[in-house]
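SAMPLE LOG
Freezer: B-3
Tube label: C17
Construct: single chain, 285 aa
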Amino acid sequence: MRIARCRYERRWSGVARPDNLEYLVNEPQTLTVDVNGFPCRVWRKGNGPKLGFLAGFGGLPRWVPFLDKLAEKRTVIVPSLPGFPGATGHTVLDNHLDWVIAVRQLLQRADLAGADLVGSSVGGAFAADMAAIFPGLVKRLVLMAPFGLFDEKDPATDPWAQRADNVAGLMCAEPDNWRQLVAIPEGANSIEWPIEMTRASEAAARALWPLGNTQLAKRLPLIEAPTLVLWGDNDPIMPTSYAHTIAASIKGQGQVQTIAGAGHLAYLDQPQAVAAAIEMFLAQK
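STRUCTURE (predicted):
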């Protein structure tokens, strides 16, 4: 894997810089950092202590209400994983070690070293690895139904083996929440947009093959950071039993909380409840 370089610049998240001042207030600042010579988008919004977020399956094609709720009290920093919307470079990551190093560099270049970190689904697998392998990188950790584990007695559902029209119901308790996330934005290229969404799924599969199992169970005991494990009570992808396995395995203090009315990507189904749970956890002494 090539040595990472860093380029840090400011952009507007829309196609062109908007003139509407209210729009400017509501939109996050968009920055770009380089990892292995490839650009990765970083969103930043809010004030207060820094809080990083690594998104789940599909990444973040657009800013979502969950992030706005967090930004009311925190400086929310959202780096896009390689291959996810807003980033490239996943094709040069050939094994799990390549991915771990790349994500570490991404967090460092996004100004998240030593900050609190939230990770969901695919992003949760890497958030857990960051806390386990580089303990100084993560202050406090929130994991929302992370990949990385596999139990033959209670197997996870493989989202890559599903028909496209079934994915929405697997990701969210209310499938329209997923459909709204991945809907083509105004002004986007109708041909390129499906390719970008397919690339995000490919990147996640490349990172987590096979069956989302990165042998994370072996590294959980290395996590010293206080950890909140959040799970949607209607998650058809990751069994709830995994939440208790994580909390019981980490070295640091761990607690489990279930989010009612939420599926795998709980932050899409219940943005206010998930944000409130995270803020309450981070406020603990």
